[in-house]
Amino acid sequence: MDKVHRNLIGGKWVDGIGVNENRNPSLPDELIGLYARAGREELDAAVDAARAAQPAWAATTPQARADVLARTGDAILARAHEIGNLLAREEGKPLQEAIGEAHRAGQIFQFFAGEALRMTGLKIDSVRQGVEVDVTRGPLGVVGLITPWNFPIAIPAWKTAPALAAGNAVILKPADLTPGCAHVMAQILLEAGCPPGVFNLVMGSGATLGQALVDNPDVAAISFTGSERVGRQIALGCAAGLKKVQLEMGGKNPMVVMDDADLEMAVKACLNGAFYSTGQRCTASSRLIVQKGIHDAFVAALETSRGALRIGDPLEADTQIGPVVSEAQLAVNLDYVALAAREGCEVRGGERLEREGWFQRPALFIGASNDMRSSREEIFGPCASVIKVADFDEALAVANDTPFGLSSGICTTSLKHATLFRRSSTAGMVMVNLPTAGVDYHVPFGGRKASSLGQREQGPMAMDFYTAVKTAYVSAG
């Protein structure tokens, strides 16, 4: 019988209420591993273990916490090829991209090892004579982290590392589709000396475990990355329980291509943003807003590049585009391709490939308008709408006309257009002559409108969510 990878609760590996099969989307008959599915009982046990362990973790020195995080980061970097291979098999990213994600996870832990030593506060003179004021930050307690399938090591890392650096205890609930990388991260944290109960891993149904985290009164905060629909439910539940909440949700990100753009550079940026990672990124360029003078040349050049993309097994060296993560997600993507055609777009590509696995040819929806459902709803697949506009003002208006506001971009050689777009875009992140997808770990990540709620992730600002501010007044008399 195959080994079952179990939940980590209170420093011990614990069975669940069932077993989940983790399968390869490139080769669905390949079983990567069996992973225990936790239920509410296991979730509540993890919260109890975290609550018991957290005070001692918070009371330890910043150096002790930094050392655990640094050792974790070092171990992830040392095992980046191994983790990348697992990631490519369970999620579908091409191997080099998967190794890069594992490397990023290690860097994140190393960064927040430093942040554990930089928990700064304020010392301010009071307006009253003889009174001193100290403003400090401290941990929240037990925090619940709910992560998606599309970045199965990076997102668990960028939530876990700041939470632990601040002195919190963690319950991590990874995506049911991709539990393998999170399980390896849990092993590494334990081996790096993270005390029992400070970090807990519960795997299984998001509907069951996510709701249990929201309902448990001993969980002080929830950080969630996933769909807007689920994010709204979590926000309502956290509001009812007066919990702190952080949400990273969807995107329908615009990339504007102006007549004055460098055509080769614009095509490369849009090809990367729209189709790499099989379009399974919340920062993907899913709306290509192209000025009329360059439109035809841009579409022709992008079509040539799209057609040359190498689609295949992620473990093959020349693969650029891997599979869609699951059969269910592929069905959603194909429904949107059909919808775009019904809405009047000229659809190029988008069909399922006749081979084993969940492979789809990247799609362009030519002649799209911004009021089409295919241009407004997040598809989360390798599909991009091409919307023709007359000038910069129309391009900016179309770019901002979306319920989302995560990332946006512009390709232009005009300093005027670049500056106006950076100032006027209603997205949380703006790229100039770069893909909308692709961010650094040492600066804030997040958006506006229906894309994000709460404080930013990544960089020093990530510590704001995982800490509570305390103001102390002391009489010197």
TrEMBL record:
Keywords: Oxidoreductase
All copies of domain Aldehyde dehydrogenase, residue ranges: 20-471
Active site, UniProt feature: E248
One Gene Ontology term of the molecular function aspect: oxidoreductase activity, acting on the aldehyde or oxo group of donors, NAD or NADP as acceptor
Pfam families: Aldedh
Gene3D superfamilies: Aldehyde Dehydrogenase, Chain A, domain 1 (3.40.605.10), Aldehyde Dehydrogenase, Chain A, domain 2 (3.40.309.10)
Coiled-coil intervals: none
Database matches in SUPFAM superfamilies: ALDH-like
Presence of keyword Oxidoreductase: yes
Family of this protein: Belongs to the aldehyde dehydrogenase family.
Protein name: Aldehyde dehydrogenase (NAD+)
Lineage: Bacteria, Pseudomonadati, Pseudomonadota, Betaproteobacteria, Burkholderiales
